[in-house]
Amino acid sequence: xxxxxxxxxxxxxxxxYAAGDPISLIRAGKPNVDQTTLNAxxxxxxxxxxxxxxxxxxxxxxxxxxxxxxxxxxxxxxYIIGPKIWxxxxxxxxxxxxxxxxxxxxxxxxxxxxxxxxxxIVTSFSLFGVSMPTFWFGxxxxxxxxxxxxxxxxxxxxxxxxxxxxxxxxxxQIAHLILPVxxxxxxxxxxxxxxxxxxMLEILRSDYILAARASGISERKVxxxxxxxxxxxxxxxxxxxxxxxxxxxxxxxxxVFSWPGLGRQYVQSTLNLDFPTIMGITMIITVMMLIANxxxxxxxxxxxxxxxIR
Amino acid sequence: xxxxxxxxxxxxxxxKRRSASQxxxxxxxxxxxxxxxxxxxxxxxxxFVGIFGDALAPYPAFxxxxxxxxxxxxxxRTPPSSKYLLGTDVLGTDVLxxxxxxxxxxxxxxxxxTAITMAIAIVVxxxxxxxxxxxxxxxxxxxxxxxxxxxxxxxxxxxxxxxxGAGAGASFxxxxxxxxxxxxxxxxxxxxxxxxxxxxxIRGEFMRIxxxxxIEAEKALGASNRRIIFRHILPNILSSxxxxxxLTIAYAILLEAGVSFLGFGxxxxxxxxxxxxxxxxxxxxxxxxxxxPGLAILITVFGFNLLGDGLSDALNPRLRD
Lengths: 310, 321
Known about the structure:
By secondary structure, chain A is mainly α. Chain A has helices at residues 2-19, 22-27, 35-45, 51-63, 77-112, 117-131, 134-148, 169-204, 207-214, 219-256, 262-271, 275-303.
């Protein structure tokens, strides 16, 4: 885990700083800044040193949770990122749980009767979901539920001061969550269903299921107790990757719904070429993903007894 | 015995005793798959619009939407009407024309990203899958780094940094067609971050086929590695490559739309994602400029996905019942 985090940080750092010195990149549109100011800025941000030294400096700082200063306004990066971590986690975790809870029964049912009417509807809907631009689905939801019907807020994570949706801080939170969660759930639902269904189809054909059915075990137990366990293990591996996909999709969803999270900040910082903030967000997302992977590994042990260490 | 036609109980007219080729069998199987055929029709229609879109569009393409004074005919934010079938956007361009002009860019993105992606993936996948051992180990760790980390984040940095140098509206000539440089940079970045998944798939196929008896027989006959890879393994996984390529085209179009929508695209090239981005802040008014270009993306990507699934069923019958 630690080597992976280190690897990602090196790749991100080197590619970013190899692409160019941020000060001259930012200066591109502003020819009036003179050389002395540029040099002073470089010295202030420690950009006058070679890239490997810069990386080591950055690494020692980050191990002390010092993310450096933003190139865009000079604020400490931690003040920019800090308040945005929770909204992202909230959005991702809620969507992930809902998506998984819904996708299992749907996928199992359509795998039990492959190519039936229900299965065809489910598979076409999930193919449709895979084909839809995430952000565009969000736009449609906003146009319908927010602009036309006026039922739900179109932007932000909390109501503006003095106006709370549905008159209560908690309900207000929920009102703001509904649309972005709907987008994330639909998108990952499509992937989950396609994957679990494919696994289930293969497993339901295997000999041990035939044996279980032959010995008169109830259909419910055969499907949910015997088959699902095996079908879900590959899906869990995928879930870890899907989480990456969701976090990767987060910039889109957060941008559409003006969600005050890491993804939207990332887009903003990248447009501003604010390298220290980009690195900070990259590292936080990496750590979040590694933690998710760890949780997944632990879950494995519970679901798949073969993984357990004797 | 000559096969009989069940309808009139006579031998089939023009029947030749020739076994059907693998592709003829696949085509017959594909034809029966309604979803796959629908996908093929959509894809052909999109290709048609991509080629003739400029001629079909009721209004000319807008050359430089953000750089020039945008309001070229004064009708800004007009709702759909008989004059502008899908309305006009915040810049005063006709949305229908924009979509038709943009089709060629979508295809350009899809095809070129896929070509580069598959080229890298086939090289890496074959080497890792065929030679195994430490080469495989090194290459697979490399793809894992790409896979673990959400590549969109890297894509955004790269696109942002590399498009800084590209001049506004610059383009180069290729076979007499002018191709925007900004969009081409985006394409290369997308391809560079897109290959790892496909490389793993190709590696898996290579490892599966490498273990089959006929490869062992080839080796016993003294065939070189090159011959085995190019003459025996690659043709065998061609069908998988075709399927993945079709799905990769779909994915690349989606990804480019997303990158453009976030404001990282080539502002001088009106791709579908760019139309969505330009009108995003005014979408409360110009909903038609958000709904219809997105619908174009959805239909195109859906077409390629359907085609990919259909091809997969037709070419890899093992996966089906």
